[in-house]
Description:
The complex is a heterodimer. Chain A is mostly beta strands. Chain B is mainly β. In chain B, the strands form 2 sheets. In chain B, strands 1, 3, 4, 7, 8 and 9 form a 6-stranded mixed sheet that branches. The radius of gyration of chain B is 13 Å and the shape is globular. The N and C termini of chain B lie far apart (36 Å).
Amino acid sequence: QVQLQxxxxxxxxxxxxxxxxxxxxxxSISSGSYFWSWIRQPAGKGPEWIGxxxxxxxxxxxxxxxxxxxxxxxxxxxxxSLKMTSVTAADTAVYYCAREAVVVAALDYWGQxxxxxxxx
Amino acid sequence: SYVLTQxxxxxxxxxxxxxxxxxxxxVGGKSVHWYQQKPGQAPVLVMHYDSDRPSGIPERFSxxxxxxxxxxxxxxxxxxxxxxxxxQVWDTLSEHYVFGPGTKVTVL
Lengths: 120, 108
């Protein structure tokens, strides 16, 4: 059973960089059968897809966030990461990592989520 | 950018049928996925490719998609079905996933 776990600081100051890592267990991130996504959800709102990465390093990003987001993968550690620059209070949210099986084309496994607050 | 619209809430009595619409321009031409999210938990995929149920999802859950509206239907609603339900599609023009705002299903 695949499991995903987010990790990173729970508090980031405005204008700084938010950095999160997702560790995948129970399966190889190098498999060509999956994409690996980041999603966020502000309190009381619906989910917002941030972007995804394939094991090869190919990425897709939400156009509204593309200028401030970078997703990378470390296959040796079975991890993928999110960096979001120049954050503001509007970036406060629960951040989730998730797996997308190519044959399903939907997010079939999710991490538990981690709350990141942007505040001075 | 592609926009999905959902009603904020749907209320249904136990044993009745809940229908949750997800509207978008020609959404019938896209594949729609649905997620269930209970308070404090991560979303769970309950329907993909419009009407395919993942393993472990009860047969009471079904989906359809035509024209400008996709619909998630929950038959014989139970108290445990109370949750937020969000739809999702892939926007082929800008190559990114779009979520609907979510519908809170309340079991009366």
